[in-house]
Amino acid sequence: MGNNLDDIVTVDIDISMPATDSSSFDNLLIVGLPPVSGPTRPLPDVGVYSNLLEVTDAGYVADGENADPVGVAARVAFSQSPRPAKLFIAAMQEGEAKMLESPIDTLNRALETDGWYVICPAGIGDDEFEQIAKWTEAQAKLFAYTFLSTDDPVSDVYYRSHGWCGLTLDNDLPDEVPESNLYLHVALTARCLSFPAGSETWHLKQLAAVSPSFLSGTLKKKLIDGHSNFFAQYAGRNVSVNGQVRAGEWIDIIRGRDWLKNEMQLRVFNLLLEHSKLPYLNEKIALVENEMIAALKMAQVRGLVAGDEYGADGKLIDGFTVTVPNAADMTATQRQSRLLEECVFSARLAGAIHAVKLRGTLKH
């Protein structure tokens, strides 16, 4: 028997679901040739695989004389610890006259699939890397690649591309390098994307399934000064070295910036969804300010943005500041536009310690 309260008090409850975002900063996309022996079934534009068995079931060979570049790259990726939760693969497709499409055409198709962030070529010549770098610069993505020479094949300044020297010795010929070292960039990407965006550095990371370089000091300096990267042995440990994009910025800063932008956008968008209306009132503008602050505080937790600190003079230095406009100062034109402008933040990057200089004195 009902309680009959609907006759007196009517209650309607809506379940509010926040908007979710398909953007991801945690997954890599291998772009390369289709299986040499042909796939076991038609390949999707972008396949998503959770382990190496699923990749080989799709027709890729991951080991042996007949190994496919994409298969080997997938094996290297899944060899890292922790291994990727999922791996995206986009195979170049045949077009007219049985000719394979260009990597750029493959990437344009891959944009239709959400969830991947870093482009990793497999079996694509380094003469294509500059074009991929140009394409990537216009996207909210990163491009990683390995080169087997003493000179980085990507020569221009790019903020979204980073190259890794896969040589084991200065005078290596390409066919003398272990096959897995062609995918040094895949190993680094799989390893570093396992960290939350903004919480990592791509320097001094240990990797599986790839061999370290034993390069001369001259070549190491040349690579670092030229904003390239490599994998070498220090104190018996094999580690990545440097971690910069071609423009000289740190890879983790670019990834962290992309994540922070997306985080702030999503928070403010959800705020607009949750309210039937946000009038031009200071208390409502403060809600936008709160979402900006929440995103920046999360960036502090991850180590992307610096915390509040005291300087040598004892004065407090804010990790970030946020300013929003005063509703009373809004003009009629601004209110008519329904656009809230001049919501501004400034934040100090926390940076990361890559090397340490110690100095001391021994006394009798």
Describe this entry's structure for a reader.
Helices cover 28% and strands 14% of the residues. The protein has 364 residues and is of the alpha/beta class. The chain folds into 2 domains: 28-251, no CATH class; 275-347, no CATH class. The strands form 3 sheets. An 8-stranded mixed sheet has the order 2-3-1-4-5-6-7-8, sandwiched between helices. Strand 9 and strand 10 form a beta hairpin. It is globular and about 80 Å long. The termini are far apart. 34% of the residues are buried.
Q: Give the % helix.
A: 25-40%
Q: Rg to the nearest angstrom?
A: 25 Å
Mean pLDDT: 94
Structural category:
alpha/beta
Number of strands: 12
- Termini distance? 93 Å
Shape: globular
Strand content: 5-15%
Strand order of the largest sheet: 2-3-1-4-5-6-7-8
Per-chain topology:
Layout: E1 28-32, E2 47-49, H1 52-57, H2 69-78, E3 87-91, H3 103-110, E4 118-122, H4 129-137, E5 142-147, E6 161-165, H5 184-192, H6 217-225, E7 229-234, E8 237-241, H7 251-274, H8 282-302, E9 309-310, E10 316-317, E11 320-323, H9 332-337, E12 344-347
Parallel strand pairs: 1-3, 1-4, 4-5, 5-6, 6-7
Antiparallel strand pairs: 2-3, 7-8, 9-10, 11-12
Helix pairs in contact: 2-5, 7-8
